[in-house]
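Record minuted for completeness.

…
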Amino acid sequence: MTAAPTQKQVLHRYLREARSDLVGKLEGLDDYDVRRPLVPTGTNLLGLVKHVASVQLDYLGVVFGRPSPRGPVPWFEADAAPESDMYAAEDETRADVLSLWQHSCAHADATVEALPLDAPGHVPWWGPQKADVSLHTVLVHLLAEVARHAGHADVLRETVDGVAGMRAGDANLGVRTAAEWAAHREHLERVARATSATG
């Protein structure tokens, strides 16, 4: 009989899955499509990966006294350009961002594996009332953040080329042809218009 996974193993597994869902949204896209801003605030797929890699280094590195050997990321410095953690600059390649991503994931995983769930940490940017935390709290927080950004990436990717779902063959997504999806969307549009006219 196999032992049940521990709480830490469960949280870590879900974090790794959410990370995989997020970075997977870059697959099959050219450099323009991963970089281009897709909403008025400029959110883009490569920027989401850069952002998550960056915050993960802080939450599962700095917070527990385990800073990255690569040093702090420059876009979190006080003099950095606004939102520069949310896009790849002209001198940053896709390979640069993915290298940061791989390093961040490996560094984060090492922290999770090395520490117990009740290991103390300190999140100075949360303010004095909430700054003292445990690994458990940070894992829950980071899992929520990564899942949120993976959801952003789901929607962004669908606007680029219609690819939807967490990964190819996602059983959570209905199987329909493009024409069936178009008919479904039109049905929802009619429902929205009808209910807004009567509501």
User: Anything to note?
Assistant: Residues 144 and 155 are 17 Å apart (CA to CA). The longest strand covers residues 120-122. The radius of gyration is 20 Å. The chain has a mean pLDDT of 93.
